[in-house]
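Lab notebook, bench 4. The sequencing result for the construct came back, and we need a structural model before the next group meeting so we can plan mutations. Quick request posted to the team channel:

Model the 3D structure of this chain.
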Amino acid sequence: MQISKRERNILMLAAVVAVLFVTTKGWPAVMSMYAERQGNIESVEMDIAREQRLIENTESWRERRIEVESQIAELNNETFSGETIPIVEANIQRALSLQAREAGITVSSTRLADRMVTDDWLLIRQEMSFRTSDQANMVRFLESLENSAPRLRVTALNVSRSRNQYSGAITVVGFARSEGLVAEVASNR
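Done. Here's the predicted structure in token form:
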């Protein structure tokens, strides 16, 4: 079978139209599919790299978690607790008096505790007057306050000596979480 000149021209025109169609519609479609595939490959490679970094950092995150948990436990050991603010104040006063008695310090008087509430914290300041006949008792007392749990921090210490006796006043502060504490009327007294 022979193709006539007219049929050949129609076939050539169809081939040109097909080539034009492929170049205007087909090639861009193929290129967009290729670009999309490249984008997917890059996304998967980034996900793999991120997962590998997370796997590599797992141990450091575990160490950080353990460190934070130990800091929280230490903080809980250093703070006072109680259901109401007066109970927390009484706990601080009792701890201060006990530390003084164990160190051989005689408690002359204690003042009412001052409190200050900020954010979720309650700071309670307690002042106590004391006397002792031996300065070593004061050193033991200060050491016991430094090592106390919950922690009492000394903010002021005044000591005077008359004859064979030392007398003075000490101010300590203790902390408690104010969250969940029942307050009487106002947060500050």
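The chain is about 55% helix and 25% strand.
Will bring this to the meeting.
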